[in-house]
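User: what does the whole thing look like in 3D?
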Amino acid sequence: MTALGLDGASGTQTLADAALQSDDSEWHGPVIRYDLAKEFVIALVAMVVLAVALAIVFSSPDEAPATITAWASSSPSDFLTTAVAELDGSSPTAGYGPPYNAWAPGEGQKIGPLGVERWVGVHTPVDTAHDFVLAPLGIIAKSDPALAAGLTRYESASAADQQQWTTAYTKALDKVSFSGSSVVVPPGRYGPVPTMMSALLQMARGGSLDGALLSSPRFYGTDYTKPLLFLADGSYLADKANAQHLAGNQWGMMNETGNYPGQAWLWLYTMWYQIPPFTHTGNADALIWSLMMLLSLALLLLPFIPGLRSIPKLVPVYRLIWRDHYRRLATESPGGGPRAG
Amino acid sequence: MSATTDPGAPAQATPDPDVARSRMWTSRLREAAVRSLPPEKLLPDTQPSYVASWVYVFGVLTLAALAVIIASGTILVLKGPSWWHLSKAGLFMNSIHLWSVELFMFFMVLHLWGKFFMAAWRGKRALTWMTGVVSFLLSIGAAFTGYISQQNFDSQWISTQAKDGLNSVGVGAFFNVLNFGQMLLWHVLLLPVVVVVIVALHLLLVRRRGVVRPLPLPAHRRSVSRETSPGHEQVVTAAAAATPTGGTTGSPLGAGPADKTS
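Assistant: Here's the predicted 3D structure for the full assembly of 603 residues, as structure tokens:
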């Protein structure tokens, strides 16, 4: 605040006269000295002091990322269930659709009749069976003949046999137990799936699956799409998020771990996910995004929207903002004082 | 490029150097810039007398917070994306970056609400409002990409949750929130550059158009011919319209002759 004083002599019009001019005309009424440069420097110092003080007192959250190693070690049953689902194509990512994989006709979220999600097609191809299970196992199969034989048997089997094995193994995982590094399931017709899943679990626990999912033919890699999709398909990541009150029905991604404000400015976007009809539709993402785009457009074009642009005149906040102006105007006006409208 | 003359050439009408200079693109650009924003308008040392409220401070506080964000972000960029996870100094700098973002968004929202209640788009200021809204929306994107570039549990969770909304409208195909490299570049380069450019444009428009006038009080407004619009509200009272000089007897408060007619 650097309004240093009223300098009424600088204006060529009285306040009353100047106030009568149209909104787009130059102001020729009374002026005040106003040091913009000094104001900015004071504001900058204030912001530096505030930011440093808040950083000293509250620091910032940095909870270690979830890893596939930790997932396989602490929730092996969930890991195996997810891995089998990736293998037989029944996981959320396997049936996600664009941009990861193709959809059956008619599927996908829509905005009214418009299936925008489908139109863009597959831009980041993900074949969950190959990318999350078969390819990583292929790496360690080079030094494990039993696994190599199991992989060959699985890949050369018919789709019906593969489906029968994975379905039976998925049911058996309800009664799974772990003995050291061994996965113990009731006897059944699982084909080579137990060999493959045990090997994948050991690979994950040993830490090499994290790297295998990131592997890039060009050595360097910065794309975590595959490991993140794999992690998100299980319940390990969601359980951790629930414990931190970060789930979608807990105002989700606008929050962050710990008692931090997070992205509070996403409150409106997040709010829609908490209320009907969005809580009861499989189309919620597309509808909410469309709604937010519409609202953002309305905010942008507010000056041109009749009715909405007149709201400020109906809400007397402006009287508070310019109360000194109205008071001075009343003092200067002949025979009149301020009148409430 | 410069124009030269041949001393051996026969005498002929020499073009006026001032005219030649005035035709140069550079001259025209400079003159247009100075015409639009003369120095005293770009950096004025006075403001209309109505510019006396705390609401006017929110804009400059937003700008100051943006400067702190850029400064702290630049240090984080210089040290690389892993630095803040591995050292106390890095964590402290990240904390300054985080809290300056919180301050920036807080004051920007106050600034936006303040300008809304002032109907600050009046008087050909619609573009000023629109650049402000665009910078607000872009800032949300910049903050969001920052959250998902943190390489911690928050970024894992936020990105895996956000992908569904983005994919549902086709945006995820080109803006992959699970691709750390892509998001980091958006966060440290593309979005900051665009935000700074739009904010600069916003500030130039603010200086060019000046600070919006106070709304007339309702008793006075009854005689205003048209509702608030971006460029053409005519604050002309019945009394003002009736006086040949443009109305020195009226008052926005409705005192005096103007009020008697409304």
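In plain terms: DSSP finds twelve helices and one strand in chain B. Confidence is low (pLDDT under 50) at residues 1-5, 223-262 of chain B.
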